[in-house]
Design brief:
Residues 360-401 form a coiled coil. The protein has 583 residues and is an alpha+beta fold. Helices cover 53% and strands 17% of the residues. Strands 2-1-5-4-3 form a 5-stranded antiparallel β-sheet. It binds guanosine-5'-triphosphate.
Length: 583
Amino acid sequence: MRERLAKLLPISFRGRLALSFGTMTLVLGILVYGYVGHVYRAQLLVDRGEALHDLATAAATVLAENLHERQREIELLAATPLYRRSALDSPDLRRSLERLQHAYPAYSWIGVTDAGGVVRSATGGLLAGVDVSQRPWFINGRDAPFMGDLHDAMLLAKVLPDTGDKAPPRFLDIAAPIRDERGALRGVLGAHIHWNWASDVVGVLNPLLAVQKQRELFIADHNGQVIYPSAGARAATLPPLTTAVLDTQSRFTAALWEPDAEYVSAAVALPAEFTSALGWRIVVRQPLHVALQDVVALQRVLAVFALAIITVFLALIWWSATRISRPLEQLAGLAMRIENGEENTPLEVEARSVEVRHLIEALRSMASRLIERREALRDSNARLEHTVAARTAELEIANEELQRIARHDALTSLPNRRAVDERLHEEFIRMRRMRRPLAVLLCDIDHFKRINDTYGHALGDEVLCHVARTLQRSLRESDFIARYGGEEFIALLPATSAEEARHVADKLRRSVETHPHPLAGRVTLSIGFAVADGRHEHDKQAVREADDQLYAAKREGRNRVCGDDRGGEWPSADAHRQLHSAQ
Ligand SMILES: Nc1nc2c(ncn2[C@@H]2O[C@H](COP(=O)(O)OP(=O)(O)OP(=O)(O)O)[C@@H](O)[C@H]2O)c(=O)[nH]1
């Protein structure tokens, strides 16, 4: 796989180095980018969650303290001498109620009942004389200071002036018993706080809920139902909040409030010492994407920063890779030149690292050793070639000598029978082509046995050599004389007619006869000749005829020449063609 990839992408060493480190840097950069982003997101979530928690705590404290103040206000008022002693419907008491309402307009109604639950005095005279004995605030307020949960207006809805609100008014009830000097119950002082009160109280926190931060504050009752913002506002349409959102144990929560809306929120219960009976919880939420929008900004900055770092790193890596690979590339180039025959190329490469310097040294000594060995090999080859040439020449000479020996008679040095056969064949072909007769002379020493017998075999040999030299001297250079066997010689005379053959034969005979051997004395020859011409179809034919003539010369008394004088005939042109095609 790697080899196939390497073939597809022939990347240089520098490229590979840069690619490896570049990839590592890129991966590292992405990991750091991801990790920093993740850590920052987690930290930011904690910060935002804590801020929401602080806000919810502040809201809960403000609400609880205000409620506590209202409760204490009613409690203290009920304990004043005016309420303990004077008639419950006295003008003074009524004025006291009006003053309180005037001082704190969130009170929609403040009234006093007698011990039986009938309203005796009230702000604006509302509900005076009405029996409220079944209302929870009266029932609970008889025994101890009481604070009732938010509820829709019952009796008051009909008598309060219309404020234009579409939803019915909602109230919080506060009540405290009115006792006389002896502690006996005289009646109950009750107040209804209009729910707008919550907006006024929480309103102090509006700057902290800043619009651009999209923080929202909710008050949920003990069932988790949102009671603030008031009915008609968007949040009032929310379903009861989930237990995850209302969890006051954890500092904050990130949860889906709506299918596509994830919020980070913090829930805080109203401080128990003041209003534990209500069980309200303050929830402050902020869309998660708004809470974490700084992460996006940071991620952008990080991305730019990481890109810049990676770019700088890549440039550094490329620079380093170039520094590392340059001497190696130069070395490879020089090694290639040496390989291509430029053996004297000096391995001069500037390298800073010890390893590369060692490599250069090793290559340098390897190259010089290789060059030495190559030169030694070249010398040895030259010597070998010289030796081979000398041996070949010697062999050729020896071969020529062998050829010569194979075709010459060792005793007389004349061509032997084998050479005769080859020459006869050549001359026969030439004879037919040139249409010039070929004379064949067979010469046999007379009574040679007697010479051997008389002078010994060694002298017989000398006589043979003597006759051979005599015959050789007597012939033309174009003629061919050879030892045909024993004391017999053969002469081939190209372009020689029967008449000329007879003449030459006689000259040979006479030449031998007239040149006696110094020891053996006079030697004679018998010669039979034949002339090969157009009649002959085979080269041996003329030799047989010459042999017949030699036999005749011996028979007729020796030292003579016998031959057929008819030689030198040629068939007509047609017959000649037929002869050729037949061959
Ligand atoms: N010294 C010697 N003798 C040879 C050589 N070759 C053949 N001879 C002898 O030559 C003689 C030939 O004898 P023959 O065939 O009877 O012929 P001749 O004695 O010459 O008698 P004619 O030919 O009938 O005249 C034999 O005694 C052979 O031994 C040779 O190389 N050297």
